[in-house]
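Sample 3 of the quickstart, ligand pyridoxal-5'-phosphate:
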Amino acid sequence: MLAAITPDKSAVEKFEVEFARTFEAKYALAFPYGRSALWSLFKAMDIHGAEIIMPAYTCVVVAHAIVLSGNTPRFVDIMLHDYNMDLNQVAEAITRKTRAIIATHLFGYPLDIDRLAEIVQEAEDRFGHKIWVIQDCAHSFGAKWKGRQVCRAGNAALFGLNISKMITSIFGGMITTNDKVLYEKLKDYRNAHFKKPRFSKTIYRLLYIMAIYLAFNESIYPLIYWLQEKTLILNRWIKAYHLDDRIHFPPDHLDRMLPIEASVGLAQLKKYPEILNKRKEAAVFYDKNLHSREGWIKPLLLDGATYSHYVVRVPKRKKAMQEMAKKGIQLGRVIEYSIPNMAAYKSLDGGAHAINSLRCSIETINLPTWGGEFVAKKVNKLLITTKAC
Ligand SMILES: *Cc1c(COP(=O)(O)O)cnc(C)c1O
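Result:
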């Protein structure tokens, strides 16, 4: 992490090369945010005026990227057991206007990439044009379906790298692909449209990184929780941009990734196996040790899942959180909205069909997955997590 303080200029390229190697892709390209990466990918794929299929329950910035690139999201409901899109509904949602599908592997649970490939092939044959498949791996770095990395399926994969993700470069996003032509187009697009950030941004990021560095390394996560809940410092970055009912991107969405961010990302990549193992241990730990309470539904333990989050559904969330808070246990919410029911998206799609998504937006709580040992110690004392998705 200390390397972050003295980043070298080629750090971004190094980060891309290492990222591609770690996740078994031929190419990787770095962006300032996951959403900017996705938006650029639509440009590189030359998708506009089209419908793009995505889950109703996911991070809202995905829908923003679709709208801001001149396309229309088509929401598909999720299934309750693994929080991923119902693929039968995906098959039904495909029309002649569909040009892409965002295959999200939510909370680290792998979606059935084989069944999706069959559905897409059938639709391509029927409509006679390409339908791009983009894996949203923001929650599922290294998730596997039947032993295969989900990020290698389809045409490209998106990774989010903000502080709530499995690996962080503080902010940032990455696209991986094995398609050389697509890679070249995306790279040209990025290099033509993304500019070098102002110098002061490096200073701000540096301060931010130092706070996070302390939090991650000294187990003083409560400080971050305090910063997030009681001050406006993190709000500006974490909360504000999601839930303000406007379809927009942050002002710096067309900045290049900073070398300093890439250096943090590189340091994090080295820890990836350890991070993944800790998350798996935490999930197994909870599964074994969390006392069952009436109506509480624990998430699945599943081969190949990466457990970016450990999400429990509870019938009366507010009451449950208040009760736990009285006992000194602070539970977190994760994605507290169903996109088709949000003000900005209601006019597109009333959300009436996304029953499970709506239900999850009301019932889910997130337990921290900061690693087995930390969690084991704190589980009955203090449970906290970030609200970003
Ligand atoms: C975080 C996230 C992204 C990308 O988010 P950015 O904040 O733009 O980096 C995309 N999809 C999902 C499911 C996410 O959680």
